[in-house]
Design goal:
The chain has 997 residues and is an alpha/beta fold. 49% of the residues lie in helices and 12% in strands. The chain is built from 38 helices and 20 strands. The strands form four sheets. A seven-stranded parallel beta sheet has the order 8-9-7-10-11-6-12, with helices on one face. Strands 14, 15, 16, 17, 18 and 19 form a six-stranded mixed beta sheet that branches. Strands 1-5-4-2-3 form a five-stranded parallel beta sheet, with helices on both faces. The longest helix is centred in the N-terminal third of the chain and has 26 residues. It is elongated and about 125 Å long. The relative contact order is 0.08.
């Protein structure tokens, strides 16, 4: 029970009062504030050291307002948080301009460049690491300032009385006083800390300290408030200072000094917390001693703690353990759901384990608008989709001059805030599926990086579309050119803070992102954060830096910003908050997740530059102080709330057992009947019908294809079920870009350059005076020279887009001499190049189950056809393979399962005119390796591998093809029977479940 409110006497010192932070704490506080108002006949000013209880205190003041109050004090006393009170200081507009976080970081950057010795000390592995280290330096400098500025509070107070005379002079005098204080403290601190870190910090402190620092502004605000009260004591209001949490020693000294000086002008009540009836552990009662160590308890104090435990609402405390993370989140969600069902409308989820709390929140989203969720844990703005969309653009513009990766490009284009229609100035209908088309093109060609590579891939796709009579993707080239232009602007920019901000804003406007972000709650907040980079006419606007540095700074600022959710009305409210935010707040029920020994208590990250001992010397926060405060916060929560569920994960990620927090274990020694319940998710049982084998029958309503490519027929031979899923149902696995450089696009270039080379060879042979007719050596030289020239020409654009392709070109150039020798030997055998990249096909006639004759076209594109100069009826088909001869031999062993060459041969034999080979039959078919093993002797290099027993294989293939198509058109069951080598890469693997039977 709280002590009686003191009688306010005419004393020139603060009155001390304490309240017990239990379920009646807000009532006691409200009654005390009203008591002060009635005793002083004035409307008091109430300042809370933390902002969390602000609304609760105001509500309690309204609820417990005394009756028959005099009219001049009938209004609610003014209640403010400490920070708001400082910002409302009289004459605050005359204070030195408050520096933003961005400006302070930039000041670190400037001083680094000015002072070489600081550059040598101040190092980080990356730009992001450097800005993070800058933040650590600023925090450390603030800590040093907090220890120094209070020493000059008297001078600031006396100086503030004359501030109206000359504001500029006042600021200069403050700067002088601050320099003097720093000089005095420098020697003393140097004696206590002699390592290099202290030298770095003290040097930065000298360069960075200014009247615009938060610490300096805080003390200027205190001086202004004190001056206003002393100037007009007749209207100075009573001040009620509520210390909701244990202050740092330096803050305690500062406020004690201020309250004493203010008490000379008006009544002051210093309200603290009385832990005698609330403490559940010894540290929550005794605190720490002068040396910063935990104080031991005597027997009387221990008896008091035992009585507090027995008198608590422990019947409403529930212990729940879960074995896994998902079970923990599920248990938290179920606990909250149970409280909602019980009619509780104001529930708190204390996020000691923030990941589990986030997961529980996702599970609770099924309640929809009936449950309002307020996240007070500092949800990072960087985790929103708005920030992710901006980051996708930042990643694109930081790409090298050759261009971004395909993944980075597609990630930006697919973000929901990019307005493609606005960017291209076209209708929305014209832009439908445009990005999806680009993705298909890039993945099919494996064009992984570089503007030029992307352009080549699109041009090849457009050429193919034109040849097939479909519409080419002209808008894709337009989009690519526009994005490349934006990218080039960043690379050419002589970047400073001003023009970088202007260009970013211009980008967002031209791509419609600014307009789309304005429509989104997180997007609006993101745009407000970006406005902080508008430094106006400030001193930092023309600071030049490298693009990676500026982008890292931008990302760091966004990372530091918190996302504020838009409020809404609902039947119940769930507040997700840290333990520290539960102080003096009332909830119907509380669920605390993360009560294991590793997370409760939880300590803030240790300062980068200060040890715990140095923090104590500087009167800052220490680990012991944080430990005591959390013990008190948890005691207050358990004592004040009738329903508290304590949850933790009983097994760590590595499978090691986790015990509940030591505080919980200590409570259980006093409460032996307090059980630990194991959270078990709901389970359901039913009879199952296991899949015996993957088999399907083509439904009568599903149309069968009337054409088939060689790759589709191979899929049918590999596994009918695979063909059913891929070709009949049209299901495709989402393709991705593999790591490293894939030779798919390079392979296309090889085919193209070989076609161009051989066409040039045919043209050269028509010239009677060409050197090509001057013997084999001259022909060899011409072929090597021109094949090399065509290779470099074709690869030039590809290399410009992706420099990694240079290795592929160099590998191919090593193959050229051997390839030329193979071609010369082939010519010596009478074979002559005829044509390349020819589409060929043939028709297969069969009868379906209804007796109707059907025709299916089997068609593909052959790499090359040769004719024999010694035989007017002979021709050959060649298929280039960008692989070694050993893989080609394995392919030949299963020719009937992959009969690509046989398909081309039959197509020519049945319709030679369509293949521009009238009167000729295919008598030879072979694969040619473009990756021969050059380590062998020249006469042992094997580059080609022919199809053996060609006539017999053609007969077997034709019979097999007819049988396979008859089964397909008869709609017979299609079973999954492929070997493991095929299943390993099968697109239908997740559907057929062949591995399950």
């Amino acid at each position: 029970m709280s002590r009686p409110f003191p009688t306010l006497k005419e004393q020139k010192q603060p009155h001390a009062w304490a309240i017990a932070p239990n379920a009646s704490a807000l009532k006691s506080l409200a009654e005390g504030i009203w008591n002060c108002a009635m005793q002083t006949k004035q409307r008091p000013l109430v300042v809370l050291s933390t902002a969390g209880p602000l609304m609760g205190v105001r509500a309690a003041l309204e609820k417990y307002r005394p009756k028959d109050l005099p009219s001049h004090i009938a209004f609610l006393p003014q209640v403010m948080s400490f920070n708001d009170w400082l910002e409302a200081a009289p004459g605050a507009w005359k204070f030195p301009k408050k520096q933003t976080d961005l400006e302070r970081w930039l000041s670190v950057y400037i001083n680094l460049r000015k002072h070489k010795i600081l550059q040598s000390w101040f190092k980080a592995e990356s730009e992001a690491g450097a800005w993070g280290l800058a933040q650590a330096v600023i925090d450390a400098c603030d800590l040093l300032s907090e220890s120094v500025v209070p020493l000059m509070q008297g001078e600031i107070n006396s100086l503030a009385q004359n501030q109206a005379l000359d504001t500029e002079l006042w600021i200069k005098k403050v700067e002088t006083l601050l320099d003097q204080a720093i000089a005095k403290a420098y020697v003393g601190l140097s004696r206590q800390v002699v390592d290099q870190e202290s030298t770095v910090l003290l040097a930065f402190w000298r360069y960075l300290s200014s009247p615009g620092d938060p610490v300096m502004r805080k003390h200027l605000a205190l001086a202004a408030h004190l001056q206003a009260a002393s100037t007009n004591q007749s209207v100075a209001r009573p001040l009620i200072w509520v210390e909701t949490a244990d202050p740092k020693p330096i803050d305690q000294e500062t406020m004690a000094r201020y309250l004493h000086e203010y008490s000379q002008c008006a009544p002051v009540i210093n309200i603290g917390m009385d832990w005698y009836s609330v403490a559940l552990w010894s540290e929550a009662l005794t605190g720490q001693d002068a040396e910063g160590q935990l104080q031991a308890v005597d027997s009387e104090q221990q008896n008091l703690i035992d009585r507090n435990i027995q008198a608590s609402f422990h019947d409403g405390w529930k212990l729940l353990s879960a074995r896994r993370f998902e079970e923990l989140a599920w248990a938290a969600a179920k606990s909250i759901e149970a409280h909602l069902v019980a009619g509780k409308t104001n529930i708190a989820l204390v996020a000691q384990d923030r990941l589990a709390a986030r997961r529980a929140r996702a599970l609770l989203s099924r309640f929809g608008p009936s449950l309002r969720i307020r996240d007070e844990t500092g949800w990072k703005l960087s985790t929103t989709r708005a920030a992710a969309s901006l980051n996708s653009w930042l990643e694109l513009i930081r790409s090298p001059k050759e261009g971004p990766s395909a993944s980075a490009l597609l990630e930006f284009l697919q973000n929901p805030f990019f307005d493609l229609a606005h960017t291209l100035q076209k209708s929305s209908e014209a832009c439908v599926s445009l990005v999806a088309q680009l993705e298909d093109i890039l993945i099919a060609s494996q064009a992984k990086s570089g503007w030029e590579t992307f352009r080549i891939a699109i041009e090849r796709a457009n050429a193919y579309s034109s040849s097939r009579g479909t519409v080419p993707h002209e808008s894709l080239l337009e989009l690519l050119i526009l994005l490349q232009r934006h990218h080039a602007q960043w690379l050419e920019l002589k970047l400073d803070c001003e023009n970088a901000y202007a260009l970013l804003q211009s980008n967002l406007q031209s791509m419609g992102m600014a307009q789309e972000l304005e429509k989104d709650s997180a997007g609006k907040q993101l745009l407000e954060v970006l406005k902080t980079f508008d430094l106006g006419a400030g001193a930092y606007r023309q600071i030049s830096m490298r693009l990676p540095e500026w982008l890292s700074l931008l990302k760091t600022i966004i990372e530091e910003a918190s996302y504020q959710e838009v409020g809404q009305q609902a039947e119940a409210t769930l507040s997700i908050l840290p333990l520290s935010s539960t102080r003096l707040r009332e909830f119907d029920a509380v669920v605390l997740v993360g009560c294991d020994e590793q997370q409760l208590p939880a300590f803030s990250e240790p300062p980068l530059f200060f040890s715990d001992t140095l923090n104590r010397l500087l009167k800052a926060s220490t680990l012991t102080a944080q430990y005591i405060q959390q013990a008190r916060d948890l005691s207050q929560l358990l004592i004040s709330c009738p329903q508290v569920d304590l949850l933790w994960q009983s097994k760590s990620k590595s499978g090691e057992p986790l015990r509940p927090s030591a505080w919980i274990s200590r409570l259980r020694t006093q409460l032996p009947d307090w059980p630990i319940l194991e959270a078990k998710p709901d389970t359901y049982s039913s009879l199952s019908d296991p899949l015996q084998e993957a088999v399907t029958t083509v439904h009568p309503d599903i149309a069968l294809p009337i054409s088939m490519s060689p790759s589709a027929y191979k899929a049918l031979r590999d596994c009918p079920y695979r063909y059913y899923v891929r070709s009949i149902l049209g299901l495709r696995k989402a393709k991705e870009f593999e790591e490293g450089f894939d030779a798919s696009l390079a392979g296309q270039v090889l085919h193209a350059l070989l076609k161009n080379f051989f066409q040039a060879l045919k043209t050269e042979e028509q010239k009677p005076h060409s050197s090509i007719h001057q013997g084999e050596d001259a022909r060899r030289a011409w072929m090597r020279e021109h094949l090399t020239k065509y290779s470099e020409k074709e690869f030039e654009r590809l290399i410009k887009g992706d420099a990694r392709v240079t290795g592929t070109l160099r590998d191919w150039q090593k193959q050229i001499p051997s390839f030329v020798e193979w071609q010369l030997q082939r010519e010596a055998e009478g074979w002559q190049y005829h044509d390349a990249e020819l589409p060929v096909g043939f028709m297969v006639t069969l009868t379906d189950p209804d007796g109707v004759q059907r025709e299916i076209e089997i068609a593909g594109r052959a790499d090359r056809f040769d004719i024999n100069t010694n035989n007017s009826t002979a021709a050959a088909v060649i298929d280039y393979k960008n692989q070694g001869i050993n893989k080609i031999k394995k392919r030949a062993d299963h020719l009937l399962d992959d009969p690509q060459l046989l398909i081309y041969a039959r197509a020519v034999n049945e319709n030679a005119i369509a293949a521009h080979l009238p009167g000729r039959n295919i008598e030879q078919a072979e694969w040619v390796s473009l990756k021969a093993d050059l380590k062998k002797a020249e006469d042992k290099i094997v580059r080609s591998y022919p199809v053996e027993q060609m006539p017999e294989m053609m007969v077997q293939f034709s019979e097999q093809l007819s049988d396979d198509l008859e089964v397909l058109w008869a709609r017979k069951p299609m079973k999954a029977f492929a070997p493991d080598s095929v299943c390993q890469y099968c697109e239908a693997r997740g559907i057929c479940r062949k591995g399950m039977w």
